[in-house]
Amino acid sequence: MKKTIEFTVAVILLFQVAIAASAKTKSITVTGWVSDENCGALHTKPGGEDCVLKCLRGGAHVGHPEWKPQRMVFVTDEGQKIWVVNPKALKGFEGKHVTITGHLNATAKKIRVVTVTEVKTT
Length: 122
What we know:
Elements: H1 2-24, E1 25-36, H2 49-57, E2 72-76, E3 82-85, E4 97-105, E5 110-118
């Protein structure tokens, strides 16, 4: 009987942890710019691709070893909020205007990107 109660309590605790973890993330679709942590919202227009790539790599390759590699971020069009992202999902979109779908963790200020589509300008 004691083991059954312990098992039941353990299952309830695991269930509560799972609910709490899922409450921290939510699915979103949002449009914005792929940038680097240093420049952030400075590159929310066409033409910033080269700077973003340099900042992501760091400056050693261009003669500035003091420039440290930066994390990739996503800057939303609305409100220019900056979110850290999983860089592999956005490889090839550095400095580009994109729409992403992913899982937002507002507490950690991160978006785990699932899909990405470049916004075409006319």
